[in-house]
Amino acid sequence: MRFTPNLLLVASLLASRASASSFTFIQPNTDRLKCLTAPGFYNGARLTFSDCMGGQEFQNIDTESVPGRLSMANGTMCFDVVDGIKSNQTAIQLWECADGNINQMWEFLPTGQWAVAKWKGQDMCMCSNVTSGADGNVTIFSYQAKLYLSSLWKAGFEAHVLATRSGAFT
Questions:
Q1: Nearest to 76 by CA among 41, 107, 51
Q2: Antiparallel, parallel or unpaired: β 114-119 and 152-153
Q3: 3-state SS assignment for residue 116
Q4: What is the CATH number of domain 9-166?
Q5: What InterPro entries does the entry give (predicted)?
Q6: CA triplet 115, 126, 118: central angle to 5 degrees?
Q7: How far apart are CA 126 and CA 98, in angstroms?
Q8: How many other C-beta atoms can be found within 10 angstroms of the C-beta atom of residue 95?
């Protein structure tokens, strides 16, 4: 599968809430039937896009439990850049959440009703290679002006609220 950087990632607020957390699901704009999915909750599980399953726990993403983190499995498994490798197309995996782990810190930069999911402190953002009808991988890619639109996320609430809740301004 060839990497296609011209994708918008869209996050929609899921109606469910657990404790103080808010769960979202994330979809690429090229195929609204695909959702960001974890194959399971274990260290090294590579995030992909696959068919949406309507509230399946492997597609629920917690954006609020800890500022700057994206997590699953009740906040125990975090989105993690594999080995902290700062290189285009490095995969994003689940890894046990650890305070201070810079490979697990994300910020959402608001752009009106959209936000960019950027690896905190790095010039890399979250991207996907989804094409219509096909599953795809979730990776990081260089955060450059020409790729800016390929990494936008949208939530069921305004992007500036998502950015504030994610710790982008802390």
A1: 41
A2: antiparallel
A3: strand
A4: 2.80.10.50
A5: Ricin_B-like_lectins, Ricin_B_lectin
A6: 55
A7: 20
A8: 19
What pTM value is reported for the model? 0.74
Number of other CB atoms surrounding residue 22 within 10 Å: 20
Domain boundaries in the chain? Answer: 9-166
Q: HEC string of 6-72?
A: CCCEEEEEEEEEECCEEEEEEEECCCCCEEEECCCCCCCCECEEEECCCCCHHHCEECCCCCCCCEE
Q: What angle do CA 94, 99, 68 make, to 5 degrees?
A: 70
The pLDDT profile of the chain, 170 residues, written as one tens digit per residue, is: 444 333 334 333 222 333 445 677 777 666 677 788 899 999 999 998 888 887 678 888 887 778 888 899 888 999 999 999 999 989 999 999 999 999 999 987 766 655 667 899 998 988 877 666 678 888 888 876 445 444 555 443 333 333 333 333 33
